[in-house]
Specification:
The structure holds 2 protein chains of 2 kinds. By secondary structure, chain A is α/β, with parallel strands linked by helices. Chain A has helices at 29-35, 93-104, 115-122, 131-152, 156-180, 191-211, 234-244, 289-300, 315-331, 349-358, 373-385, 392-420, 425-443, 448-458, and strands at 7-10, 19-25, 37-39, 52-60, 63-73, 84-90, 109-110, 222-227, 261-266, 269-275, 303-309, 337-342, 363-364. In chain A, the strands form 2 sheets. In chain A, strands 3-4-5-6-2-1-7 form a 7-stranded mixed β-sheet. In chain A, strands 9-10-8-11-12-13 form a 6-stranded mixed β-sheet, with helices on both faces. The longest helix of chain A is centred in the C-terminal third of the chain and has 29 residues, at 392-420. Chain A is globular. The two termini of chain A are 49 Å apart. The relative contact order of chain A is 0.12. Chain B has 4 domains: 6-198 and 343-452, FAD/NAD(P)-binding domain (3-Layer(bba) Sandwich); 203-337, Elongation Factor Tu (Ef-tu), domain 3; 458-556, Orthogonal Bundle (Arc Repressor Mutant, subunit A), CATH 1.10.10.1800; 568-620, GidA associated domain, C-terminal subdomain (DNA polymerase, domain 1, Orthogonal Bundle). Helix content of chain B is 36%, strand content 18%. In chain B, the strands form 5 sheets. In chain B, strands 1, 2, 6, 7, 8, 9 and 20 form a 7-stranded mixed β-sheet that branches. Chain B has a 6-stranded antiparallel β-sheet with strand order 14-15-16-17-13-18, with no helix packed on it. In chain B, helix 1 (15-26) packs parallel to helix 9, helix 2 (55-65) runs parallel beside helix 11 (442-452) and helix 11 packs antiparallel against helix 12 (458-480). The chains are: A alpha/beta, B alpha+beta.
């Protein structure tokens, strides 16, 4: 089997100060990489032998992205059996994403989950006994990336795309209607309204594409939900973590700014803290609606931090807390949950022991006095290093969206050009279908049935 | 009475049955067509027209393969229109109004003139099945007729139930008996069956209508035709007319709603959404105060007229009262009231791509029995069933058309992969690669295949080869020949296209959106090339399309090629999906039920995700 498309993906989990590897596979990847690689010795990658490593810079025109080592493997003697380029760059999520985007705009597409392995298998690089393992890998990786995609779909980003796609679908239906039912008494697609919609979609897509560009590292952070009542010291904790480290704090810019989240880099890894302030308003801890909302926040997160004010802990409160925490753990056995008892500066050792007996895993700290912060950081980082968390998937998912947005934009531009040239609508429909397909990659799937269903639901058809 | 064993028995003589019998006979199978009524072979049960959008393309495909529908339509047409001419070439769709009686007569004569084709009139009430293989049919008189294969094309006749208002009675078509026995027998051996509904409008006396109050709908000034062979072109045509319903008409119809089988729950089965009854239209789209109606003549010499757009199962007195209030129908005299009909069908996911059933070997289904609607859809299935039954008896490879080769391929693949909940009609939007599936190139796409399986004649193949050779050379001419600014600029100015400063290849100028073949023919070098080579209309059309839409055609070809990579990966028969734990539960269940033949087909099953496909790919290997 021969694959024409060039694929790219991050091959490593990202880590602080470590190296990240970006892998490209496909027929043209060596020449593609060559266009964006400036060797320190002025070598051209195309002329290099297989299984060689070259030092240089990843560039885009005048712009230098990173110093990197580029390895060349020529098919069929490579992992996938195709030409492979591996770029070893610095481990920052920002650089990784920039390099991914560079190649996505220049001849590569994002690899599907497990696609390198799939290609390796299909190109005869593995024997059949490995098939099951490969299949499992693909299924599980898809599951994981899907989950993360859902997590990332927050704020206005997904709903905006969804809305626009629905409008575009509606127009596509009208165009199909004109085509398949031109003999009948149906309303036709209003070209001016369509043109306006296209312009609007184009603008939104451009904005979104821009938002993926420089300065938007924040989207890559590992989402951490901080749960706790108001005044337990969340802001103090965040600021403490912030001041202590070179960190970035900013708003996450969705298209609607309904959530404010803080991004903090710890040991080079971005953590995005999702504020869940004021979520609980009844005393009935177990049954409250607040719990529901808390669970929604937890749904979006990869790590849960449960912050407790040690000075407000009665025996009753402590036991209800225990139940609540075990509920969260039972519901999300995969998600690490850190219980933090704050304000230990105001806690005597007797009470501390009492709490410790009830909550043996709890981390004791004082955000105000910066006691115990290092332990918290190590714990968070520990999840990454032990593989309980994988930061690269968020980048991959992001890049996938970026890839789809670019393609959707290009199709929308084609539709507009076609309209200006009075292209027959059956040909316009080809480009519209492609645009719908790419937008659908972000929000869900499009099929022809969907178009037809829309037609029948809304229009009176049939002689 | 039937001493000798037949190769193929075709049950039913409608569009599906007639094409099946013709294809089987022409491919050398000794064929028997059994029908309840030999007078109604090739009967048009509903509107007297063939073709239309997407359907016209199907008729062209049937013709290109060597079927009869195109020829019969040309011989019995009373009006021809190429629909959608203002759109791109993928949308151009031929349609003809037919002389209903002559259409049936031409079919009967065509079949009688086909060697190997025998006829017998009786109701088939059962099948003879031995070792999961069909070996003949049983008739209601108790006769057993043996054969190697059977094609069932029962249309709306299986337990057909006709509704007019509160009255209901058994029947397969107005004035004809229903067929019984087959459904019961098939469900007993494990087939799943369902009910569908369709309807038809009243037929009236044309002499009682006032056409002066209606809008004339003439045929094309230069009528084309369906068949790629030498068939007659219309020199004279009959007009259709258009009128509208009104608020008053709707109110009168509504008065009968409480007696409508549609609304009082008597009809439970699903009808086609895109071919709704008039009561359904005014009920669902209450804000619309008028609907179009087309008045179509039934033939050259009959006064009977078909009232398209007024399909109904309301009581006949309500039909009459309402129709009388339509402009031009004030003095209308009824010939036959409209009615609805419910009938049995077999969900088509029980079939293979060849239209052979998965349960019983050598048993084929075609037409409405598979849940489709439309003459063209039925005819094409009959053709494919007839072909495949013959090929199987000859121990040859099955004949399967892919989605990028023909609408027929889209039709059958949709049916057996997705099934259908309502009567299935073809639309161009069902095809992923509609730009490839045009009415102008059905011969280029399919005639070589039809010839290879022994159906399309050598004459057909020659004509197609000549057309291809000529259009290729003409395209080549445009690629190679340059045009001077002085010659082309006056034309470009006329169509508001930017003028050129230096001489350019004709192909490039011709590719511009507003430049047409007519414009190019104004150039001396082009017109003399045409005259020298005596190119006909078809060659000019083919060339124009290939030049002007080359970009889009290439784009769709490219997309289709990507798909065909998956088409080539076969899934072994009876593959055990329960082994594949990596598949989602839904995918596993669906795959088990449908048993797709290729990875590509699997990917079209709803509920099977791209991830599931990757998993399958791994198991199917390279």
């Amino acid at each position: 089997m021969h694959f024409k498309e060039n694929i790219i993906a991050l091959a490593t989990a990202s880590g602080a100060g470590a190296i990240a590897i970006i892998r490209l596979s496909g027929e043209d990847v060596i020449s593609l990489a060559d266009k964006h690689f400036k060797s320190v010795r002025g070598k051209s990658l195309v002329q290099q032998k297989s299984h060689t490593i070259h030092l240089g810079h990843i560039i885009d025109g005048e712009k230098t992205y990173d110093e990197a080592l580029v390895s060349v493997f020529k098919g069929p003697n490579s992992y996938t059996g195709e030409n492979i380029i591996e770029i070893s760059c610095h481990g920052s999520p920002f650089i990784q994403q920039q390099i991914l985007q560079l190649f996505l705009s220049n001849g590569c597409r994002m690899a599907q989950a497990g696609e390198f392995t799939l290609r390796a298998f299909l190109n005869g690089k593995m024997d059949l006994s490995q098939a099951e393992a490969v299949a499992d890998l693909i299924a599980s990786e898809n599951e994981a990336s899907h989950q993360i995609a859902m997590n990332q779909m927050r704020g206005g980003f997904s709903s905006e795309i969804k809305k626009l796609r629905e409008q575009l679908l509606n127009f596509a239906s009208l165009i199909e209607l004109e085509l398949d039912f031109s003999e009948e008494d149906v309303e036709f697609a209003d070209r001016t309204a369509f043109e306006n919609l296209l312009m609007h979609i184009e603008q939104v897509l451009k904005n979104l594409i821009d938002s993926f560009a420089i300065g938007n590292v924040i989207k890559n952070g590992i989402p951490v939900a901080i749960i706790g009542e108001p005044n337990v010291g969340k802001s103090t904790l965040l600021n403490a973590l912030l001041n202590d480290d070179r960190a970035i704090v900013s708003e996450i810019a969705g298209t609607t700014r309904d959530t404010i989240e803080d991004e903090i880099a710890i040991g080079g890894i971005g953590f995005r803290f999702i504020d869940t302030a004021g979520i609980r308003d009844t005393a009935d801890v177990v049954e409250s609606i607040g719990i529901k909302k808390t669970f929604e926040k937890i749904e979006q997160a990869q790590v849960v931090v449960y912050l407790i004010d040690s000075t407000e802990l009665s025996a009753d409160r402590l036991s209800s807390l225990k139940i609540e925490i075990s509920k969260i753990k039972n519901k999300h056995p995969q998600k690490p949950c850190i219980v933090i008892v704050n304000k230990i500066d105001r806690l005597d050792s007797k009470r501390k022991t009492a709490i410790q007996n009830q909550l043996p895993e709890a981390l004791f700290l004082s955000a105000k006095n910066k006691i115990g912060l290092e332990e918290l950081k190590q714990k968070l980082l520990g999840f990454v290093n032990t593989g309980a968390l994988r930061n690269n998937e968020t980048i991959v998912t992001n890049s996938r969206h970026y890839d789809s947005l670019l393609k959707a934009l290009s199709e929308i531009e084609k539709v507009r050009l076609g309209m200006s040239e009075d292209l027959p609508s059956d040909l316009l429909a080809i480009d519209i279908r492609e645009a719908l397909h790419y937008l659908g990659e972000i929000t869900g799937q499009v099929t022809n049935d969907e178009l037809l269903g829309n037609i029948f639901a809304n229009f009176c058809i049939g002689k | 009475m039937f001493g000798e064993e037949y190769d193929i028995i075709v049950v039913g003589g409608g569009h599906a049955g007639a094409e099946a019998a013709a294809a089987a006979s022409n491919m050398g199978s000794k064929t028997l067509l059994v029908t309840m009524n030999l007078q109604t072979i090739g009967q048009m049960s509903c509107n007297p027209a063939m073709g239309g959008i997407a359907k016209g393309q199907i008729v062209r495909e049937i013709d290109a393969l060597g079927g009869y529908s195109g020829i019969i339509t040309d011989k019995s047409a009373i009006q021809f229109k190429m629909l959608n001419k203002s759109k791109g070439p993928a949308m151009w769709s031929p349609r003809a109004q037919s002389d209903r009686m002559r259409f049936a007569e031409e079919w009967r004569m065509a079949l009688e003139n086909t060697p190997n084709c025998d006829f017998y009139q009786e109701m088939v009430s059962g099948l003879i099945i031995e070792n999961d293989k069909v070996v003949g049919v049983k008739t209601s008189l108790g006769i057993e007729i043996r054969s190697k294969a059977v094609v069932l094309t029962n249309g709306t006749f299986l337990n057909g139930l006709i509704h007019i208002g509160e009255k209901q009675f058994g029947g397969g078509r107005a004035g004809e008996k229903a067929a019984t026995g087959i459904t019961e027998e098939l469900t007993k051996i494990g087939f799943e069956s369902g009910r569908m509904k369709t309807g038809t409008p009243p037929r009236v006396d044309g002499r009682s209508l006032d056409y002066s109050k209606m809008i004339v709908q003439p045929g094309d000034a230069k009528p084309e035709k369906f068949s790629y062979l030498e068939t007659p072109v219309l020199t004279e045509q009959r007009d259709c007319h258009m009128t509208h319903t009104s608020k008053l008409v709707h109110d009168l119809l509504r008065e009968g709603f409480d007696r409508s089988p549609m609304f009082n729950g008597r009809i439970k089965s699903i009808g086609p959404r895109y071919c709704p009854s008039i009561e359904d239209k005014i009920n669902r789209f209450a804000d619309k105060d008028r609907h179009q109606m087309f008045v179509e003549p039934e033939g050259w010499s009959t006064v009977e007229v078909y009232v398209n757009g007024f399909s109904t199962s309301l009581p006949e007195d309500v039909q009459y009262k309402a129709l009388k209030s339509v402009v031009g129908f004030e003095n209308v005299k009824f010939f036959r009231p409209g009615y609805a009909i419910e009938y049995d069908y077999f969900p088509p996911t029980q079939l293979k791509h060849t239209l052979e059933t998965k349960l019983v070997d050598n048993l084929y289904f075609a037409g409405q029995i598979n849940g489709t609607t439309g003459y063209e859809e039925a005819a094409s299935q009959g053709l494919m069933a007839g072909i495949n039954a013959s090929l199987k008896l000859q121990e040859k490879d099955p004949f399967i058309l892919t989605r990028d080769e023909a609408y027929i391929g889209v039709l059958i693949d949709d049916l057996i992969t997705k099934g259908t909940e309502e009567p299935y009609r073809m639309f161009t939007s069902r095809a992923e690669y509609r730009t490839l599936l045009r009415q102008d190139n059905a011969d280029l796409r399919l005639t070589p295949k039809g010839y290879e399986i022994g159906l399309a004649s050598e004459e057909r193949l020659r004509r197609m080869e000549k057309k291809k050779e000529n259009s290729d050379s003409f395209v080549d001419f445009f690629k190679k020949t340059s045009v001077l600014p002085d010659d082309i600029n006056p034309i470009l100015e006329r169509v508001n296209s930017a003028t050129v400063k230096q001489s350019d290849k004709m192909f490039k100028v011709f590719s511009r959106p507003k430049v047409t073949m007519e414009h190019m023919l104004e150039l001396e070098s082009v017109s003399s090339f045409v005259t020298d080579n005596s190119f006909d209309r078809e060659v000019l059309e083919q060339t124009e399309i290939q030049v002007k839409y080359s970009g889009y055609i290439a784009k769709e070809k490219n997309n289709a090629d990507k798909l065909s990579r998956l088409e080539n990966i076969k899934i072994p028969e009876n593959f055990d999906y329960s082994k594949l734990k990596s598949l989602s539960y839904e995918a596993r269940e669906k795959l088990k039920a449908i048993q797709p033949v290729t990875i590509s087909q699997a990917s079209r099953i709803s509920g099977v995700s791209p991830s599931d496909i990757s998993v399958l790919l791994v198991y199917m290997g390279r």
